[in-house]
Amino acid sequence: MSKLPFQLGIHPINWVGEDVKEHGDDTTCAQILDDIQRLGLTGTEMGRKYPTDPATLREELSKRNINLISQWKSVLFSDPAYRQAELDDYRRHAEFLQSMGSKVISTAEVGGSLHFDPRRTPNEKEVLRLSDAEWHVLAEGLNQAGAIAQEYGLKLTYHHHGGTVVEQPEEIDRLMDLTDPSLVYLLFDTGHAYYGGADPLEVLRKHYDRIAYIHLKDIRPDVLEQARAEQSDFVGCIRRGVFTVPGDGCIDFEPILQELITRGYDGWAMLEGEQDPAIHNPYEYAKRSLSYMESLYQRV
User: Fold this and answer.
1) CA atoms within a 13 Å half-sphere pointing along the CA-CB vector of 264
2) CA distance linking residue 195 with residue 212, whole number of Å
3) What is the dihedral angle through the alpha carbons of 236, 111, 70, 171, rounded to the nearest 10 degrees?
4) Structure confidence at residue 269 as a pLDDT band (50, 70, 90)
5) 165 contact partners, CB below 8 Å, separation of at least 6
6) Residue 123, pLDDT score
7) Whose CA is closest to 144, among 184, 95, 99, 187?
């Protein structure tokens, strides 16, 4: 894989769930980082098992030659009442990532989402889509946050995400249209693109010039179909095993890899599975996924 024009890392969500807390909850930071080192990968995102003290985290990563590439940042910009507090928090987040040598901030709006929006109650069932006014307020907030990120040598990469208000292909398009291309970039996620009803390759081609970070994730279509038939929400879909690593689902990664190589993408891409590690061993699944990616690279 060394000849790839981009760098391949792996997300700790393969070992420890973020939305589904029971997934891998007994797994330690050392187990995750040791596995990443054994896989020969040198990039990771922040995970909830990692130490939050920058000096301790830096020590754990550096002794294994692993870099912290990013950390998820939830924002609530669609409601102007939250704007200033959210921007202040975003600045603190940027300061931390800069101190770790990161270059991108994985960012997602939680307004309207079932599993993040602090204004919602547990008995609600559907994502609340944004009004036109809320879309514009969201874009303004993201532009301001993107400017803060730039102050710290970082890029705001917006993570289109299942179960949120920027999930479907037309929502990705609208967000890209409303935001400043010099301030707001796209985190392209293959699995979330498919989950949201898009063709991942089409999203990649359409918005390539905005893409500054990538998550490579696969989908089990039979599980997704059954979950949708039973009206399962996003977190329920994760519990059912909708997501898996590249090469284990239905997404054809060969044209995606070809597109990235042809265009000379030189940022980071993270392998993601987001499934129950007690059933799907993270190290073994990642190892097979890396072999799959290697076989694709040899073909393209």
Assistant:
1) 0
2) 21
3) 80
4) very high
5) 78, 109, 111, 112, 113, 127, 128, 129, 130, 138, 171
6) 80
7) 184
Contact 215/189 with Cβ under 8 angstroms?
yes
Torsion of CA 175, 177, 182, 187, to 10 degrees: 40
pLDDT tens digits, residue range 35-66? 999 999 999 999 999 999 999 999 999 999 99
Within 10 A of 38 (CB to CB), how many other CB atoms are there? 12
pLDDT at 73 over 80: yes
Measure the N-to-C terminal CA separation of the chain; round to a whole number of Å. Answer: 12
Residue 256 is which amino acid? I
Which pair of structure tokens corresponds to residue 79? 């409601």
Please state whether 206 falls in left (phi above 0), alpha (psi between -120 and 50) or beta.
alpha
pTM (two decimals): 0.97
Long-range pairs of 277-282 with CB within 8 A, sequence gap ≥ 24: 277/14, 277/15, 277/16, 277/23, 277/24, 277/27, 278/23, 278/24, 279/241, 280/241, 280/244, 282/14, 282/15, 282/24, 282/32, 282/35
Report the Cα 58 to chain-centroid distance in Å.
22
Distance CA 264, CA 257 (A): 10
210's tokens: 């905005």
Q: Are 136 and 83 in contact (CB under 8 A)?
A: no
Element holding 292 (H helix, E strand):
helix 282-299
pLDDT single digits (tens) 205-248: 999 999 999 999 999 999 999 999 999 999 999 999 999 999 99
Q: Encoding tokens for residue 266?
A: 């030189």
pLDDT (tens digit per residue) in 287-297: 999 999 999 99
